[in-house]
Amino acid sequence: MKRVLDRLRESGAIRVEFQPIVKVGPDHVELYAVEALARGPRDTSVERPEVLFEYARRKGVESDIDLICITEAFEAYTRLPTRPLLSINVHGATLASVDHFSDRVLSAAKAYGIAPDHLMFEVLEYRAPWAIETFLSTLDLLRDAGVRIAVDDLGVGASNYQMIVDCHPDHLKIDRHVVNGCSGDRWRRAVLESIATLGRACGATPVAEGVETTADLETLLDVGIDTVQGWLYARSMPPEELAHSPLLSATQQKKGHCQ
Amino acid sequence: MKQLLIIDNEETILFALKRYFAKLRWRVDAASELEEAEALVAHTRYDLVIADLSLSSGGSTEGLEILRFLHTKSPATHVILLTAFGTPAVEREARRRGAQAVLLKPQPLPELARVADQLLGAQP
């Protein structure tokens, strides 16, 4: 029987969908970036991304899977008619442990004709201390090449102040747990206000994940967070579908317009 | 719909069990490796797990590892352990780790379904 890992290593086995990230202005919405989201092979036990990455973690192959996902994201990105900022998740352990990660990834990007300044890496599951010097020098190399860095899932798990202090991110991706329901919850609103203040002080752009209602969007705009991602604007979709999305073909839409 | 996880490294057995229980209107997932099974259990609430004791060659006992994992992560899940090498010691250890039934392979499918229904019917 073919092992799961062997199946995942087959070209095209891991599929990539994109979810738009938009910037909401007073009377228009523009596409800011697309986040690449990996999906396991269809009709397999690891089709769901949470199971796929749990399997990778238990098997100790997060970095292998990350590299496959990055390559598949590049491949899928070339199927888009325009070139928005491409955001890709990467485990902290991958940045710390893969030899010459920045060289390998930047070479692959070049092969696909993707400029480094069109790339953003969202760092997740950062757990210091382990090869912290390698981790930080990899981030520096990527940043020097023009790649943007984001901390992912800010507000839950290991995405904490230490991560911000160490990573010097350009973007703060706020976890949906903090965002969802913020319009009716003063605690969530207070946390969002503090992140907006933190972002301004550090020169990092906050991005709210999991925005699903106009009420939550209004709260985010009210506290100064105008870059958002969530079902209110678009679900994740295959590149072929995104290619026909009005978000991609026309960069401006009315505020609050849903897909 | 009741949720079932079948764990076995023999493709034909996985296929047969999956097909049989799906026809009985179970929602069935299948895994052939320890880590694959653990990843599924970590993100799914199963009513029943049917696991083979050995998932690799040489009389291995990954099934006992899965029992330990289930006992910690999903104590309400019922477990049937299948083994081709049943000994009183293995059965004792399996039951100590939370298996409600230990059955010898090969097991007729209707008998396996009967035990499954019996286990789930017995729950409060």
Structure description:
The complex is a heterodimer of chains A (259) and B (124). With 259 residues, chain A is α/β, with parallel strands linked by helices. Chain A contains 12 helices and 8 strands. Chain A has helices spanning 4-8, 49-59, 62-77, 92-97, 101-111, 132-145, 161-167, 176-179, 186-202, 214-223, 239-242, 246-249; strands spanning 15-24, 29-39, 85-91, 119-124, 148-154, 171-174, 205-208, 227-228. Chain A has an 8-stranded mixed β-barrel, surrounded by 5 helices. In chain A, strand 5, helix 7 and strand 6 (171-174) form a beta-alpha-beta unit. The radius of gyration of chain A is 18 Å and the shape is globular. The relative contact order of chain A is 0.15. The mean pLDDT of chain A is 91. Chain B has 124 residues and is an alpha/beta fold. Chain B has helices at residues 11-23, 34-43, 62-73, 88-96, 109-121; strands spanning 3-7, 27-31, 48-52, 78-83, 101-104. Chain B is globular. In chain B, strand 1, helix 1 (11-23) and strand 2 form a beta-alpha-beta unit. In chain B, 46% of the residues lie in helices and 20% in strands. The model of chain B has no long low-confidence stretch (mean pLDDT 90). A 5-stranded parallel sheet of chain B has the order 2-1-3-4-5, sandwiched between helices. At the A-B interface, helix 2 of A face strand 2 and helix 2 of B.
Low-confidence stretches of chain B: none
Major sheet description of chain B: 5 strands, parallel
Structural class of chain A: alpha/beta
Query: Class by helix and strand content of chain B?
Result: alpha/beta
Distinct helical segment count of chain A: 12
Strand order, largest beta sheet of chain A = 1-2-3-4-5-6-7-8
Number of strands of chain B: 5
Query: What ranges of chain A have pLDDT less than 50 throughout 5 or more consecutive residues?
Result: none
